[in-house]
Amino acid sequence: MILRDWRGDIIAMGASNYSTASAVMAESRSLRDGLQAALRIGVSQLQVEGDNMVVIGAFNNKIQVPWQIKNIIQDIHLLVQQIRQVWVSHIYREANMAKDWLSRFGHSFTGSWSATKCDNPILRQIVKDDRIGRTLVRRGV
């Protein structure tokens, strides 16, 4: 989860290792965690970009919510009601390199991690690249 201000600068970030959770479960939990973090710091307007079409579709009531994430999506809807304006849209993972990097980072430890300052030089460069619209190029091995 990465929270940025209107300039694209990080104001909070976090990662969790959800261990054996499926991708859809991990993405929905991450969205819920991000909304909770946004509420804790008093965000009143929020643009959410997620790369899991099932989670975004379930949130936007465009698909039938999978039973595995039904309770989490209900939690998300309750959290969103506490924020003045929320926009939720799908974005390809390659277009959000910082989130992709942070999600891989989350798999490197157990538990959760959060920060309000970006000390990692690699992530700092990725955030700069994200801000100017540079995308991640994935190559086959």
Automatic annotation (TrEMBL):
Residues 1-104 form the RNase H type-1 domain. SUPFAM superfamilies: Ribonuclease H-like (SSF53098). GO terms for molecular function: nucleic acid binding; RNA-DNA hybrid ribonuclease activity. This is RNase H type-1 domain-containing protein. It comes from Opuntia streptacantha. The lineage of its organism: Eukaryota, Viridiplantae, Streptophyta, Embryophyta, Tracheophyta.
